[in-house]
Amino acid sequence: MPAVLAPRVLRSEVVERSKLLLHREISFIHSPQFQKMKLEDVEWTDGEIYVDEKSDLVSNDRIVPTHLSYLFRKPLLTPAGEHHLFRRMNFLRFLANRKRSKIDPRQPRVKLVREVEKLVAESELARKQLLESNLRLVASIARKFAKSMADFEDLLSEGNGILLYAIDKFDFGRGFRFSTYATHAIQRHYFRVIQRMQRKRRIEVDCPTDVLMDSVKAPESSMPSESPTLTPEMLRQMTKLLDQRELRIIQDRFGLRSKPAEDKTLKVLSDEMGLSKERVRQLQHRALGKLRVYLEEHGVTLDDCEA
Asked: Which of 13, 69, 209, 225 is 20 to 30 A from 215, comparing alpha carbons?
């Protein structure tokens, strides 16, 4: 009997894994070179990936308290290293998408599922390297906007979310440094946060929709002339799309349950829910990801939403 059941368990597991892959968003920035490239083309790069931290190119000044020293664990990337990691991450995602299209959800091949999973995992490692090497950039910008340590930590958390989004949207083929692109994206978000806070002090907000959309517009090279708007029906759909914790976080973070709109900080929510600030941020990130799919179906594209 065990010899008969084992293959069925394995098949069930592979089917489930294939479903996860098929429903997962694997976005990438395309390059015409990808069609002719092979995996070994992104296995290494000429020159150093990281900047020598002992050189004069890197400041040793620490702009954050000791408990946030993790921001400086990873050295900065050289221009060549940065280009290599962005090229590698996007090419691995390109390959994962191409192989994923061959998966039969009813009878998925184990080898193919594993290949796609490996490509996705390796692309996430490259993404993590890009994130960790740019955390200090977020800290330096947050410090300029924060008026207190509490403000700084909230801005730092929000800035890290923008940084992840910027990594996914950065077009490495244009020849610009990522730090320039990310700086504009993070600063733009912080300006919107400050404007929202000032607006709340001046007027009563009858519809909190604008508050949410101010916070989830994407970092772009130029601001659109008109911002997308959430309808009441879209807001009602949130209760179907999100679980209880995600719904509460989105409603409280963006002031959707109070008039005038009063958005709670990550710290306040973490205390109320008995979770760490980082866990609250992760749940917020996941919830916005779910909402993004629904919004796209109603004319609000990924380029209008922030993860």
From this structure: 69
Copy the structure tokens of residue 193.
Answer: 């946060």
Of 203, 188, 284, 204, nearest in space to 243 by CA? 284
pLDDT digits (tens, 9 = 90+) for 241-252: 778 888 888 888
Tell whether 287 and 147 lie within a shared domain: no
Q: Which residue has 């008995």 as its token pair? A: 274
pTM: predicted TM-score of the whole model, two decimal places: 0.64
pLDDT at 295 (0 to 100): 65
CA distance 223 to 149: 30
* The pLDDT of residue 117: 96
Q: What is the dihedral of CA 214, 219, 222, 225, to 10 degrees?
A: -30
Residues 101 and 191 in one domain: yes
CB 42 within 8 A of CB 88: yes
- Do the Cβ atoms of 187 and 166 come closer than 8 Å? no
Residue 106 located in a structural domain = yes
Token couple for 169: 């949207």
Question: Quick check: is 77 in a domain?
Answer: yes
> What is the reported pLDDT for 11?
83
What DSSP character marks residue 54? T
Residues 234 and 294: beta-carbon distance below 8 Å: yes
Cβ atoms of residues 116 and 133 within 8 Å: no
Q: Note down the domain range covering 276.
A: 241-298
**In a domain? residue 33:** yes
**DSSP 8-state secondary structure symbol assigned to residue 50:** B
Q: Which residue has the tokens 């390959």?
A: 95
Q: Indicate the Cα dihedral angle 130, 264, 255, 140, nearest 10°.
A: -30
Report the phi/psi class of residue 255: left, alpha or beta, with left for phi > 0 and alpha for psi in -120 to 50: left
